[in-house]
């Protein structure tokens, strides 16, 4: 699969039969809807695209996630939700026998997943657990983190549901599970194993469960969602409604680059142009173009235009920047501006 952007002459919902959709920052933000999410996903379903919601959040039961999506206008069954808690429980099974004790630090979703995998859930390091399973929950505090640290110090295997440092909420970005895992790691010096994105484990589980001809991964974070797509060999769509920005796309490391970029989930209903290089070294995407000269990004005479033109400029900038870096050149980040993409009026 190409290391750069790809195009699609037909709407993505017509090309891919399965979409693995992230939640926070993609389908919703905290408990608030994201503009275009419900319309984009329900219309994609109507075209025949199946959906599985794949989240690094391990605090909630799949039924709870499905209920929230349904309330936001995205009818969802619990079987269409794959959580990092389920992936963590599967990871535990690769080394532990059923009946092993596991100290769970996290919410109800992680507790249920670990128990369903056949393990005995304990709450204290003094119970001599074989492993610590750690996932995000808003009520995780010092006492639980301390028990986890005690257990890991005594040799328990530390498994994190994910390593996301931040969590998008309606009020802004809050500390994520990776920040809480960092407290245990700092106390013990032990690097945990992680079941969540960017490991492609959840994606593979979801594909195996659903079956698919061609799978599209949709996310808002380059370091988790899109890195997981690259690691698993799936096409990744970055939507600009969450953590990572268009500027982040331009500066992305090869292992975190998206294959497609859209303003929001309504981009599932549109074709996606691919930038082409001309004889003068410009990477053109419809009406705009970009190039890199002596390590500096040059956006030509591009002016703020329609949202579609803004998005095309992001695509052209990514193509120019990635080509320059991959060819052994350099790119000065100071020459890459913030590239704003307004919500399209559809």
Automatic annotation (TrEMBL):
Domain of life of the source: Bacteria
GO cellular component, one term: cytoplasm
InterPro entries for the chain: HAD-like_sf, HAD-SF_hydro_IA, HAD-SF_hydro_IIA, HAD_sf
Alphabetized Pfam families for the sequence: Hydrolase_6, Hydrolase_like
Gene Ontology molecular-function annotations: phosphatase activity
Name of protein: Haloacid dehalogenase
Organism, scientific name: Cellulomonas algicola
Lineage of producing organism: Bacteria, Bacillati, Actinomycetota, Actinomycetes, Micrococcales
């Amino acid at each position: 699969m190409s290391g750069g952007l790809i195009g699609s002459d037909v709407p993505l919902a017509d090309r891919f039969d399965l979409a693995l959709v992230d939640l926070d920052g993609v389908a919703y933000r905290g408990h608030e809807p994201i503009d275009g999410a419900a319309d984009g996903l329900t219309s994609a379903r109507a075209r025949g695209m199946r959906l599985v919601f794949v989240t690094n959040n391990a605090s909630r039961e799949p039924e709870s996630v499905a209920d929230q999506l349904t309330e936001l206008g995205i009818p969802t069954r619990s079987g269409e939700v794959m959580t990092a808690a389920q992936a963590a429980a599967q990871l535990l099974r690769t080394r532990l026998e059923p009946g092993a004790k596991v100290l769970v630090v996290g919410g109800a979703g992680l507790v249920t997943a670990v128990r369903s995998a056949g393990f005995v859930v304990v709450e204290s390091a003094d119970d001599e657990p074989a492993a610590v399973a750690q996932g995000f929950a808003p009520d995780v505090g010092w006492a639980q983190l301390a028990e986890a640290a005690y257990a890991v110090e005594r040799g328990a295997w530390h498994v994190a549901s994910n390593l996301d440092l931040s969590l998008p909420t309606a009020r802004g970005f809050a500390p994520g599970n990776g920040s809480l895992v960092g407290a245990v790691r700092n106390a013990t010096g032990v690097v945990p194993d992680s079941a969540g994105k960017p490991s492609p484990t959840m994606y593979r589980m979801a594909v195996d469960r659903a079956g698919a001809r061609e799978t599209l991964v949709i996310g808002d974070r380059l370091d988790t969602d899109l890195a997981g797509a690259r690691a698993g060999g799936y096409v990744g769509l970055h939507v600009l409604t969450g953590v990572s920005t268009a500027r982040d796309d331009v500066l992305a490391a090869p292992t975190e680059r998206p294959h497609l970029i859209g303003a929001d989930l309504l981009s599932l209903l549109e074709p996606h142009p691919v930038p082409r290089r001309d004889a003068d070294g410009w990477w053109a995407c419809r009406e705009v173009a970009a190039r890199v000269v002596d390590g500096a990004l040059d956006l030509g005479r591009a002016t703020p235009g329609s949202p579609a033109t803004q998005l095309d400029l992001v695509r052209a900038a990514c193509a120019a920047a990635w080509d320059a870096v991959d060819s052994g050149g350099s790119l000065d980040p100071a020459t890459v501006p913030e590239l704003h993409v307004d919500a399209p009026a559809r």
